């Protein structure tokens, strides 16, 4: 049987996000995972190490005719919670989307399908894939899928469903890790992620904890801030609102 791959173009590029989706460790952010690793090294550390190895084995690529953007609102859960606009993608001729190919087994694929409810699992023609790093078996029966936003569900960020910085950080750290693994200059693949993502707008909030000293709680924050400041128009960045923590 041929191998199966998922094309990750947002949060799945970050190996901590993938680990939480298929590794049975949920409800923790990356900083909390590091703390757990120090205390329960016999469990979390092993899973985390496996995930880091997986990151080095994933295939970095660019796929033609897929448009990524801030396209999907999470409104299913409701209640007192507020939910942002998440990244999504759909078929659009002439567009490109960079990301990673992650080899998955049947159980992992099922976990991801469950995680990505609201998206369609769509198969990608391998001829549309340009490998930028790594290699993928050329077996004729290898299958590559990605999670597509249904056209009827396409949205843009709004004041009620904004872009949130914690999710931007999660995605950008995945691409920054790729740039560092590849030794690319000026974080060009991270910049490509930003530049090929549509619908950045003023409906954007900074929900980082302790934003005056983010580096204490979020490594790579200085790099993320620098890349955003040189890639996103300033009139958008100047409108980012900070979330008040009571």
How does this model look, in words?
- With 246 residues, this protein is of the alpha/beta class.
- It folds into two domains: 4-153, Gamma-glutamyl cyclotransferase-like (Hypothetical upf0131 protein ytfp); 163-242, no CATH class.
- Helices cover 37% and strands 26% of the residues.
- It is built from nine helices and ten strands.
- The strands form two sheets. Strands 1, 2, 3, 4, 5, 6 and 8 form a seven-stranded mixed β-sheet that branches. A three-stranded parallel β-sheet has the order 7-9-10.
- α5 runs antiparallel to α6.
Strand residue content: 25-35%
What can be said about the biggest beta sheet?
Answer: 7 strands, mixed
Overall mean confidence score, pLDDT = 81
Give the end-to-end Cα distance, rounded to a whole number of Å.
Answer: 54 Å
Oligomer: single chain
Top-tier CATH class of the largest domain: Alpha Beta
- CATH fold-level assignment of the largest domain: Hypothetical upf0131 protein ytfp
Number of domains: 2
What gross morphology would you assign? Answer: globular
Poorly predicted residue ranges? 22-29, 31-56
Number of helices: 9
Report the C-alpha radius of gyration, rounded.
18 Å
CATH superfamily of the largest domain: Gamma-glutamyl cyclotransferase-like
Query: Percentage of helical residues?
Result: 25-40%
Structural class: alpha/beta
Total beta strands: 10
Write the element-wise H/E pattern from the N-terminal end onward.
EHHHEEHEEEEHHEEHHHE
- The CATH architecture classification of the largest domain is Roll
């Amino acid at each position: 049987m041929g191998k199966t791959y998922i094309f990750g173009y947002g949060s799945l590029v970050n190996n901590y996000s993938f680990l939480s989706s298929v590794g049975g460790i949920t409800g923790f952010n990356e900083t909390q995972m590091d703390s757990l690793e120090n205390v329960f090294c016999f469990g979390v550390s092993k899973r985390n190490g496996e995930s880091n190895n997986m990151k080095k084995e994933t295939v970095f690529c660019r796929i033609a005719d897929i448009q990524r953007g801030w396209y999907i609102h999470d409104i299913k859960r409701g209640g007192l919670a507020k939910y942002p606009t998440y990244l999504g993608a759909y078929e659009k001729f002439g567009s490109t989307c960079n990301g990673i190919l992650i080899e998955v087994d049947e159980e992992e694929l099922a976990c991801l399908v469950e995680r990505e409810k609201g998206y369609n699992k769509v198969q990608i023609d391998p001829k549309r894939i340009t490998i930028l790093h790594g290699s993928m078996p050329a077996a004729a029966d290898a299958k590559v899928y990605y999670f597509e936003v249904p056209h009827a569900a396409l949205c843009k960020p709004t004041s009620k469903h904004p872009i949130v910085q914690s999710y931007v950080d999660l995605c950008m750290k995945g691409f920054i890790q790729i740039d560092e693994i590849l030794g690319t200059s000026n974080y060009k693949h991270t910049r490509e992620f930003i530049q090929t993502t549509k619908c950045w707008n003023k409906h954007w909030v900074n929900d980082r904890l302790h934003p005056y000293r983010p580096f204490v709680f979020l490594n790579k924050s200085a790099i993320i801030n620098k890349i955003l400041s040189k890639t996103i128009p300033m009139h958008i960045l100047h409108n980012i609102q900070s979330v008040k923590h009571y």
